[in-house]
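seq/struct pair 1
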Amino acid sequence: MRQRSLIAITAALAAGALTLTACGSRDSGDKGSDSGNGGTTVVIGVDAPLTGDLSAMGLGIKNSADLAAKNANKQNLVKGITFKIDARDDQAQPSAGQQNASTFVSDKSVLGVVGPLNSSVAESMQKVFDDAKLVQVSPANTGPALTQGQDWQNKKVRPYKAYFRTATTDAIQGPFAAQYVYNTAKKKKVFVIDDKKTYGSGLAATFTTEFKKLGGKVVGTEHINPDAKDFSAVATKVKNSGAEVVYYGGEYPQAGPLSKQIKAAGAKIPLVGGDGIKDDTYMKLAGSEATGDLATSVGAPVEDLPSAKQFVADYKAAGYKEEYSAYGGYAYDSAWAVIEAVKKVVDANGGKLPSDARAKITEAMQGVAFDGVTGKVSFDEYGDATNKQLTVYAVKNGAWAPVKSGTYTG
């Protein structure tokens, strides 16, 4: 574990960013830890940004995974097993994510990990987990290369068998957005901006390819520094380009101010983004003129899914301070997938965890299938979600409202 100052630890505890758990013995094998009451405690690690600009999404992921563990325990889903989570803050930084991955690996009671939020963070964690045969299920990563290799557009090769995700990929999300912008919104000229990060640049690239294929014109491109606050120079370029719409590959802390400054520059056109901007914080940052801005997000709206009614009710009843946010349902399903894999392994081993539990759980994950919060949950040969549904949301009356759900038809 990396050293933290007393001040940082105190602040993190006050924010609920650290979850303290009793770790198992380092030489206990991959069997979880003795809970002291004759049962076994299995820890599910959770990695997400619990502090900083993206903490609204990260805390929703943490809480939803925690709810899954609590519900599994309440149902006594795996006899003799008690689930608990160990949530760690990656601050949306790859280096912190990699350190967290090493910490999870070193704790033998951790038999699965949920997270991270960011594709760039996932890139730093995948090999660490794969080498340890520790299964990882992300509720939010959408970068295609994570499951299909860097050359995924020409030849798909799965790089890590320990990596899975319940969210669909930008290979689908970007083109889905392009089809909506061109065919439904009737916008033919776009200015494309990204934040140069793995998620943002990848999403912008798949959007651009499809938009051009449909007959649309890219009238300008620009990259922004995600640490900057002043986007006025870019806003002026957008205004002068004659664009009818802006597509932004990135996340809401930058997308909100960017939208506001583009409109202030005189370009009264909608900003469109992916699931990374689909958070209520976006409206606070973008201001009153955000009406009409668009975002795509994975799956159907959780609030509208019959399969999610119990999740929504349970989350509210649990009294979490933060909203479950864009990835709550997917985080619950990711944690539940780990729980289901543990159950498969325990059932196949006479009711006990085997000595090589991590490897067996990773292997079992490939065959996990269940009716989850977000619909049918299962994984294809690359570890990708088989659920390919997406939704377009528009800002209406200061909130995100779904305007179209469907799947990309390429």
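seq/struct pair 2
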Amino acid sequence: MVKMAGLSAVVGPVLFKAACPDCRERFELSAGALRLAIGATRRTTFYSFTCPECGAAVRKPAGERIIELLTGGGVSTLRLHQTV
């Protein structure tokens, strides 16, 4: 439950819209179905999931906005580099 200035709201699980490049299906995934890897470069920063329709392993690049949305939504994150 989220409370703000005397208001309260029930917030359900976060769902992310995704699409499979192999079968072209569109669907929604929970945070638990996604994985985020943050690397030292743009090439090594990505999110991944398994397509629920065709079973393909999907890997897509993740820019700053995607990283913000996924981490804010509770997606498990793996850091591939050290922060100083």
